[in-house]
Amino acid sequence: MKCPYCHHDDTQVIDTRAPEDGNTIRRRRRCTQCDKRFTTYERIELAMPVIVKKNGSRTEFETGKLRGSLMLALRKRPVSAEAVDTAIQRIEEKLLSSGEREVNSGYIGELVMRELKRLDKIAYIRFASVYKSFEDLSEFAEAIQEVKKN
Ligand SMILES: [Zn+2]
């Protein structure tokens, strides 16, 4: 941390305040050269990783889009809104805690499939058939067999 007065490189932390809002840390610092004091605020940033699509383009993560694909797969299925929220939360937590700056869209697809498998088998098959774009009937049958197993 550079001193804002003399631009000296070395400053000393003299006090650290726990965050009041949960994610900003306040620090009192002292410059070891000019002895001036100043305060810094450090934000703890939990950023969603950027999604890398198959064609290499990057896109921002959007909860709305995630919800959209889940809802599409779950159309007319007996799954509560609360269960969908929980699934979305779990996916978001996984992404946040990965600590990655970028993830492949395929990884998110896998996370969605994992949640759908738990929520509703029909929705899972629906999503998987679009997402994995099954090329023939045997692939489709395989996926159904897999769902039946658990
Ligand atoms: Zn200084």
Secondary-structure map with pairings?
Layout: E1 11-17, E2 24-31, E3 37-43, E4 50-52, E5 58-59, H1 63-73, H2 81-98, E6 102-104, H3 105-119, H4 121-131, H5 137-149
Parallel strand pairs: 4-6
Antiparallel strand pairs: 1-2, 2-3, 4-5
Helix pairs in contact: 1-2, 1-4, 2-3, 3-4, 4-5
Residues 3, 5-6, 8, 31, 33-34, 36 line the site of zinc ion (ZN).
Global Rg:
23 Å
Ions, cofactors and other ligands present here are: zinc ion
User: What oligomeric state do the depicted chains represent?
Assistant: single chain
Number of helices: 5
Features:
single chain, 150 residues, alpha+beta, three-stranded antiparallel sheet, three-stranded mixed sheet, 5 helices, 6 strands, binds zinc ion
Textual characterization of the structure:
The chain is of the alpha+beta class. The protein contains 5 helices and 6 strands; from the N terminus they run βββββααβααα. It has a 3-stranded antiparallel sheet with strand order 1-2-3, with no helix packed on it. The longest helix has 18 residues, at 81-98. The protein starts with 10 loop residues before the first strand and ends with a helix. The structure holds zinc ion. Zinc ion (ZN) is lined by residues 3, 5-6, 8, 31, 33-34, 36.
